[in-house]
Amino acid sequence: MDEARLASALAGLLGPTLAADLAADLVKIRRDCATRTLERAAPGKFVETFVQCLQHIDTGTYDAKPSVDDYLGKKVENTSMPEGLRICAARVARSMYTFRNKRNIAHKNDVDVNTHDLAFTHQAAAWITAELLRHATGVSMQEAGALIDLVQAPVGTLVEEIGGTRLVHADVPVKAELLILLHSHYPDAVPVTSVLKSLSRRSAGTVRNRLRDLHTEKLAHGDSESGYRLTQAGHAAAVVEIRAVAT
User: Which of 148, 155, 171, 208 has a CA that sits 20 to 30 A from residue 23's CA?
Assistant: First the structure.
């Protein structure tokens, strides 16, 4: 997903700031789907940005902190915007927000149905973005059509869990694989034994050495007893690796 290209196509309709925000929010949701990262709040942020987009389309201005439930539940359908936005897209967004609030997408549970919920929110966000592209101005029909195909393309699974062991499906060096793996558990620490199982196709000695390297570089914190978790710098480094292979 080319975030800058998507933002550029939406800028004529939404303005550069909201276009960039919406594109970034969608890419975060796609990334979370690819890595099975369930503790992020990207779905809620996407809906809030979309409400601002609707306000901008309707009035030319938008609230810095919109009341999402009030706007989607009471106000938007009484505007003069096209039905595809004020009714269809608004109701899809409201269902996303309901999942975010009631189904606890942003947290992990013992019985993890949240993966399916996150997949739904991704498809919903992609549909909303596609609908905005249909109304975009200053972009050719060919470019809009190509971007609609891109945003609705399935997300590949970058991290797969089998029998409690997570596998990273990416042809990357050990350090990058560790960053992606630890990112999928963030902010929890991961026992070294679990890391070794996930990277069982690698040399155990190399994996341990790279874990120590991450610790030395302050990209991860922990030890062989308590396990390792990403630091904020490590999380940022992991996002760079994920963006390179998953977007």
Answer: 171
